[in-house]
Amino acid sequence: MSEAKRLHPAAIIFNLIKTIREFLFAIILGFITFRDESLLYFILILAGLVVIFITSSVLTWYRYTYRVEDDELRIEYGVFIRKKRYISKNRIQSIDLTSGVIHRIFKLTKVQIETAGSGTDAEASLSAVKLAEGEALRQELKSRSLESAGDDEFADETAETSNPSSTIRFKRLFLAGTTSGSIGVIMALAATAFSQVEQFIPEQFYESSVQWLIGLGIIIIAVMTIVGLLLLWLFGIAGTIIKYGNFTITGNEHELFITRGLLEKKQVTIPLKRIQAVGIQESIIRQPLGFVTVYAEVAGGSMRKGEDFSSILFPIMKRDEVEDFLQTFLPAYAGLQRELRPLPKRARKFYIMRSSILFLLATVAVGIFFPSFIWAPLVLLAGSVFLGWLRHKDGGFRVQGRRLTIRHRLFSRNTIMIFHKRIQAFEEKQHKVQKLQRLETMRLSIVGTMGAGTHFTMKDLEESHTDELSDWYSHRSQ
Amino acid sequence: MRQPPINRIAPDAIKAWKISAAIAEGMLWLITIALFVVAFIFEFSYWFGAVAVLISGMTTLFFVFLLPKLRWRRWRYEVFEQEIYIQHGILIVSRTLVPMIRVQHVDTKQGPILKKYNLASVEISTAATTHEIPALLEEDASELRDRISALARVDEDDV
Predict the structure, then answer these.
(1) A5-148 has which fold?
(2) Regions of chain B short of the pLDDT cut 50
(3) What burial letters (b/e) apply to A385-404, b meaning 16+ CB within 10 Å?
(4) If A262 and its partner were Cys, which of A40, A122, A197, A245 is the partner (CB 3.0–4.6 Å)?
């Protein structure tokens, strides 16, 4: 692959879309300004602009070439100013292939190449190449010993590979959709709506027929609200299915490949050595059903719009399947510990106080000013006390050799496994009340996305435990 | 908690902090005076001014005369061959361990107030966090910077 190649002509469309999007605001502004007097001139200018846009898109496409030479990806581009960008194979961290809807019509893909830099955009992005070509390019750029690694499942899904692979089943995907985050909000809203309706209906029925009609109106509104919420929920399910449809993870000893998406097909590569921590999330709805999400905190690279901060390694699985999953894909993180060292009992009151203090104040305030509505903050208060109790119960940690497991809950319960060498800094904090109770707060920092750190805080640990942990972390004691 | 670090920061830090706090308080006093002027011109109630005097006075007492000393008393650091150990915080005491092999770069910084007392701060950055040791003697700060950067040069396989 030493001869210079152009992108697929469909790239012209993408160039055009991009330019138009950049100028859209100016065009709309122009239209509003010139709407009355000089609409004709405006249309003429617009037509001129369109011609310029198309020409520049074609020229941009024509001037954009890429080739692989001397172990480098060499891209040359620019219409007036010629630019050359050479990226050495060894510096390439990951190569992602994304196929949007337009791409899939022409059997194309977008190739994004990332190096370790911390910019917001990918280092190089080939907006449209043939799918097979993208595959070949990826194979070609995959340097070192990874060459032989069979990773052509993107092009040929039936290809037999020796690498372990796991695909989400539709039933599970559907379940993931039904239990996704939006359902909690919807349920809360529905509960509130119901209680409101119940408050109104009896009064309305006792009064005259006109009132009765209004009551009917309220019922209609209520029904419509419920239907609306149901629709939202269905959209949530559909969204999850579209986003995670055909979710497949494949691994070898250096990287994980993730393919997902029903409409926009996405393939992401995660080099194992960039994984900073592996987490298991049990949301408050999924936990009783025994389902979890497995994710990884991946360092650096670019963060595209709409991407989650951490990478989902598998959207949903049974709790007891996790161990097998880790054994297969991330053997270093296998050996899940359920028995963690808990938080001390005396920390419970602080946890409950922290989570409920706001609602306690709200209850007092409502009790004084609107005593008839006291039930609303009371329910919230009870909920928050329970949440605080759960947070305390679920908190814990365990050290196994060079690996630390911590578990904490905000709403979802997260179990996170971090290796000693991934922790960038360790901090223990203690305020006056904690000092009296011999409790301490611990804070760990690991590398996060875009050069910013990700921090994990565990509040109110036993003082002697944080001392143990800081001895474990200290590089002096080795 | 374990043993605190042994090194204190320069005693002149108290003076430097007092000056910067005094500047901020000066702004507050200006506002207070402005309130009185406005009250005088527009025949406003002097109550607002009185409250402002009270607030300014109390914050001045606290931030200029009390806090710097307390802060200085708590601030400790120690640089080992393998890691940096920092303690700070008045109400919430925080102790941080930063391993040398995680240090990405070290800076020294000096503003006009610190310069007046020949002080400088050292800022230590890892890939995820930044830590500052404020107000060391200039020589100490540059010596510390060089030492940390030399110790941090030990490389490890990856991030």
Answers:
(1) PH-domain like (2.30.29)
(2) 157-159
(3) bebbebbbebbbbebeeebb
(4) A245
